[in-house]
Amino acid sequence: MILVKPRPQGTTLPRLCILTDLCCLCSHRALSHAPTSLHINQTQHCKLLPGMVSSQAQLCRSNLELMQTIVQAAREVKKTCQKTFSDMRWNCSSIDIPIDAQKYPPDLERGTREAAFVYALSAATISHTIARACTSGDLRLCSCGPMPAEIPEPGYRWGGCADNLHYGLIMGSKFSDAPMKMKRAGSHANKLMHLHNSEVGRQALRDAMVMKCKCHGVSGSCSIRTCWRGLQDLREIAMDLKTKYLSATKVVHRPMGTRKQLVPKDIDIRPVRENELVYLQSSSDFCIRNDKQGSVGTQDRQCNKTSMGSDSCDLMCCGRGYNPYTEKLVERCHCKYHWCCYVTCKKCERIVERYVCK
C-alpha cells in the first residue's frame, strides 16, 4: 500500500527539466522531495516519482526495492552536500530549492566546479547506499560482497558481511548516468563533464573500501580477528571529494584526433586525469547575491571569529564585517553515575557569543 495523498484529477507532478543538461540532478532533486511515507511496492508507484528519464523509469518498474533505496540516497545527497560545505561561502544551498522550480540555479547549471562536486557526490552516494542496502538485507537481489581472494595474515580470518560495492556500482551507474546518455541531453561538452565527474565519484567510492575487523578471544584478548571489506562513511567520502573540488581542473572542449574531448585549459599537453574533478565555467565568488551567477551571498551567514579557515569572519563575510549576538545554551552538566545502572544530570545555562556577516 502506498501512503501518499492522491493528486487531484487532471494535475501532474512537475517534469523538472528532463531534457536539459541537469537531468541527473533533476532526478535527485525530485526524489529527495519524495514523501517519507512513500513505499514503492507496485509498478504504478514509479509514476509518482517525477524527474526521471525513460530508462530510469524502466529501472524503477523492474526493481521496486532498488528504487526505494535510490530515494533514500537522493535525500542523503542533499544532507551530506550541505554539511560538507557548511564552512564555505558556497554551502550547497542551491540543491535545496522548491520542487516546482523548472531548473537549477546557474551555479549548478553552467558546468561549474560546484556542479562537478554535486555530480560526483550524487554518483558516489547512490552506489554507496545500494552497496550498504545489500549488506543490511534490504535488497533481495543482492547480498554480501565476495570474500577477498588473498590469504589473511596469521591471527586474521575473512568473515562477516562485506559491502557489495560491485553491485552498488553497476546499479548506481545505470541510474545516475542514464540522463547524460540521452541524445537530447544538452551540449556534448556538458555531458562529457558530468559523465567524467560521476565516474570520479565512483572511483572515490572504490578507494573508500577498507578492511574492518572484529576482535575475538578470552577477556577481550583479540587473539583472532574476523575481517571483511567495508565502505567508509559517506561523510569521509564527501570530504575526499571536497578536496578534489578545491583542486578541480578547468577544461575546454577541443578536437583531439577524430573527436572532441575535454582537455585542461592551461595545461593542454596532457589528458584529463581519471581522479580529478573538471569544470567548464568559472564560478562566482559567492560574496553577494547574484541571481544570474546563482549566488545567494553570505549576508547573515554565521562565521567563526577565531578561525583562520574558510569559515572565518574575514573570508566568509568578504571583508564587509560582521555583527555579534548572544545565544543562551542549555546543556546537561554535573552528571553522576548511579550503581546500577543509570546517570542523572543537571541542566546548566551558558551564554555564548555568535557572529553573522553584514
Average pLDDT for all residues: 83
In terms of quaternary structure, what is this? single chain
Strand order of the largest sheet: 1-3-2
Tally of helical segments: 9
Low-confidence stretches: 1-23
Q: Give the overall form.
A: globular
Distance between the termini: 51 Å
What fraction strand?
15-25%
| Total DSSP E strands | 11
Compressed to H and E, one letter per element, the order equals: HHHHHEHHEEHEEEEEEHEE
Rounded to an integer, what's the Rg over CA atoms?
Answer: 24 Å
Binned, the helix content reads 25-40%
Total domain modules: 2
Structural class: alpha+beta
Q: How is the main sheet built?
A: 3 strands, mixed
Quick take:
The protein has helices spanning 23-32, 54-62, 64-84, 106-109, 113-136, 165-176, 188-207, 234-246, 313-316, and strands at 156-158, 209-216, 224-231, 249-256, 259-264, 278-279, 289-290, 295-296, 302-303, 322-338, 342-357. The chain has 358 residues and is of the alpha+beta class. The strands form four sheets. Strands 1-3-2 form a three-stranded mixed beta sheet. It has a three-stranded mixed beta sheet with strand order 5-4-6.
